[in-house]
């Protein structure tokens, strides 16, 4: 991303602060111009102002940031923790007329308990800073919104999706994803998926997972033993040296060992800037919690993860380790080696396909789609809405009806006594933001604690008081009537969601209590991605005593197709409007030699592409019956 800092300086900007989640990320800036990282060349970091390289406590670093704010130098790099401590110590006023560039912005949360999120909200409200939010995945694994809608609306969005990234790469063009299931111990099968000829990051399982043997050191030793004969440790880098059966010597970085003297040497060797372009510097990295977010090893061809990861954010971060462009690297792959679930193969295949759809959507910088409910009050004037199917018997004027529009994926649900939103903004919130409101409600600590542990709790205290407060805090611009309307719609949606979860759990209980983390984890977003008519499964192969599910290759072209399907799912068009847009798209193609792009920054070109995608989806649904 290029940031016109010279232009901002002319508008009164005096300093730039780049804050990163980990010291290891910021330390790579070193003492060099920021032009290689997307900033203009006249902005560079003096060594003393790269606080990621500075020793000492975070409190001391906060004082250093305070000294920087008072001095003449223009650019500073620091970890998130240092920035948080400095804001807390000096106040938001001290950062007036500064550019604040926040890397891995999904660490921010709109939850008031998130200190960085609360501080940024204060800085934005003061309106005397320029904030640049940078992230590879604009969502969080805990369903928290990153920003409040009114803060989010103040940003200009620049999206760079994976297919645009692949299109811009010189060498890397495709990503392969595979889920391999095993029985017994993973260490017996790991060499069936770990190719020593590929540059690989291996993430061994969490000690709390079923896949773990509970002895992480022994797990690493076993992997090394399976790869070949151990020759000792390189004294300069700390890498393990292993001779394979064909005579090659592998250089293996062990980031699992907790011994600081060993791990610090290995970590320093991996960060050595003089070795960044050396493909032969290291062959395999074995890690537990490290080498995920922000870790840059351009030669990595394979991200091999053992154990199911329930966090979609973590999965996308791990995939990102293998999707850097490098000479001679045309393909990258992500492999998840998982204990075989206690479920039928069909159920597992469906869960994997849903997971792949969620991954694909995330790579396209899409929030994973969620079900949309259209609640309407039931009264004497109520009637059926065009495009909604009310089931066998059709619409009943004497009952509260539930209709479903297959084209848009929306539910229309009548409720007696439901308050109607009065303003356009409240109407928009009820149509588009209910899932975010529910996320804020279920993540509220007070709500969770009272709901779980207070046996004398009156339910209305949560549904009326707590939900009411959340909506007042989230949408202070709404009047009391509109806030009450949003609250009622949110509670209705929450009740439906809870009923759906109960039904899913009851259905799943018959499968036993074995290892079903994959299937249960998918249910967090299954209501969203199952609505996308996409089959991303390429083939199912025998693997060990179980099987492997291999995804279709994710290339620029296939990700474009997924983007078109997702966009078509969100588009609200009539068939007539879609046909008219498709005709205009055909004329566009005749004039320019290509069809309109659904990701075009030009609103009209994008609209034409949406019409084409909408018609394609209608045709596919008709073919499927």
Descriptive labels:
alpha/beta; disordered N terminus; 625 residues; globular; eleven-stranded mixed beta sheet
Structure at a glance:
By secondary structure, this protein is α/β, with parallel strands linked by helices.
Please provide a written account of the structure.
By secondary structure, the protein is an alpha/beta fold. 40% of the residues lie in helices and 16% in strands. The chain has helices at residues 5-10, 23-26, 58-70, 80-90, 115-126, 149-152, 162-168, 216-227, 260-271, 312-322, 345-363, 424-432, 434-442, 445-453, 459-474, 480-509, 517-522, 526-529, 556-570, 575-592, 603-623, and strands at 15-20, 75-79, 98-102, 130-133, 174-182, 200-203, 229-233, 240-243, 249-254, 284-287, 302-306, 331-339, 372-378, 402-405, 410-416, 537-543, 546-551, 554-555. Strands 5, 6, 7, 8, 9, 10, 11, 12, 16, 17 and 18 form an 11-stranded mixed beta sheet that branches. Strand 16 (537-543) and strand 17 form a beta hairpin. Helix 13 (434-442) crosses helix 16 (480-509). The longest helix has 30 residues, at 480-509. The protein is globular. The two termini are 45 Å apart. Mean pLDDT is 77; it is low at 1-5, 37-41, 507-514 and 523-527.
Secondary structure elements and their pairing?
Layout: H1 5-10, E1 15-20, H2 23-26, H3 58-70, E2 75-79, H4 80-90, E3 98-102, H5 115-126, E4 130-133, H6 149-152, H7 162-168, E5 174-182, E6 200-203, H8 216-227, E7 229-233, E8 240-243, E9 249-254, H9 260-271, E10 284-287, E11 302-306, H10 312-322, E12 331-339, H11 345-363, E13 372-378, E14 402-405, E15 410-416, H12 424-432, H13 434-442, H14 445-453, H15 459-474, H16 480-509, H17 517-522, H18 526-529, E16 537-543, E17 546-551, E18 554-555, H19 556-570, H20 575-592, H21 603-623
